[in-house]
Specification:
This protein has a five-stranded parallel β-sheet with strand order 1-2-3-6-7, covered by helices on one side. Strands 4-5 form a two-stranded antiparallel ribbon. It has 161 residues and is of the alpha/beta class. It has one domain: Alpha-Beta Barrel (TIM Barrel). The longest helix is centred in the C-terminal third of the chain and has 14 residues. The radius of gyration is 16 Å and the shape is globular. It has eight helices and seven strands, in the order βααβαβαββαβααβα. The relative contact order is 0.14. A hairpin with a 2-residue loop joins strand 4 and strand 5.
Length: 161
Amino acid sequence: MYAQSFNLDDVLYWLEHEPRFGKQAVYLNDRFDSHVQDPNDPTTWDPTIETLVADGVQITAPPMWVLLTVKDGKIVSSEYAKAANAAGLDIITWTTERSGRIAEDVLIGGNNYYYQSTLDAISNDGDILVTVDVLAKDVGILGVFSDWPATVTYYANCMHL
């Protein structure tokens, strides 16, 4: 069971008062939504990865756009993802399907919240699987919270995960 909260104080409470429960607590990190924090600039992160680790947080869960960026036309791990991995944090992300179809809803309709960091590298629905592949293989996510898990389930079954 993974308790989860957007409130870091909840996770810290569970870690201090219910450590068996707290060790699987998931910090849903939505602090990048303010656009003050940049997933590729560690000087903007609050809390820092080091602070999360020092506080005992085991699992961070930012939206997937925070974990990905584009380099040389390819989707790759962001600096935040690399730092979380280097610090030994597990990573869960959210969500692949909420935005709708890539060509119709994301690129044309503007519902691009979850793909905002990778818009330069996506053009069709197949790129959802490319995104999941990078999250699984390069970012090394533990899992994906999803409203409609068919795509990630299909990927996991095909890759024997």
